[in-house]
Amino acid sequence: LSLPARLAILAVLVALSPAPNAQSSPQSSRAATQPGTGSYLGLGMKRTMEDTETSSGDSEEDGVENACGFFWTTGRGLNGPNPPGVHAIYQLDLTANLVATYPQTNPGGSPNGHYDMARDEANLKLYAGEESGFLAEYDFDPNPAPNGTLTFNQSFVIPGVGRIRALAYDPATQTFFTSDLGGPIFAFTINPPQVVGVLPNPGKNFTGFGWDDVNNRLWSFSRDPQVDFNAIDPGTGLLVPGTNFTGIAQPAPNLSS
Exposure winner among 28, 56, 62, 82, fewest CB in 10 A? Predict the structure, then answer.
């Protein structure tokens, strides 16, 4: 999915919608430090439109997360600063200026590299999903200031989940959530690496998840084929009434993945 389309639509939607409460207002320039904002803000929920692909030069970005005061995106490296086909993780400030570029470590050998990302901000960790149940774990060191460094740590294989495309993490229960387009929603852990729950898909083609710490629920990005955003009850997989937002995406390449 092309991120400018995702971020542009969310900028409009969130500007028209109330924040869940004062703590989780998308207006904060340090949003990731406030409870309940980091992960679903990773879907692009800011009041200003951020075009990360222009900043990175990579026209095939797939995943996005907001953590430790930065946006992080995953790119396939088709037109980016790395040689063609060298997958990258881009670190951007909260106005979408490119700060650093890191090579992806692709444990699953996916031709597309990493998909969506999730964060465990308390432990300074970022996660990215791949094909065949592979999950990559990265450590963020805030030093040297002001941008810190990102380092690959380890990978996990989660049996039974298939492609980890949409991805979010609930730090309170140490549970990840993933889904691939119209597939079911899997809840899984990494200690040990196993599926702990399977929820029915509520009729959406999921490509992005985010976790809302304040309201303890998932936010989802899907295209059905219209751009669509919904909150999801993590206990049932049902859409939360009154949380649906829709929009029209900008033209984007490779919408099949």
Answer: 28
* Tally of residues, the chain: 257
- Interatomic CA distance for residues 4 and 52, integer angstroms: 6
Tens digits of residue pLDDT in 207-237: 999 999 889 999 998 876 677 889 999 999 9
How confident is the model over 54-94, as pLDDT tens digits? 788 777 788 889 999 999 999 887 655 555 667 899 999 98
Name the least confident of 86-100, 102-116, 184-198.
102-116
- pTM for the model: 0.79
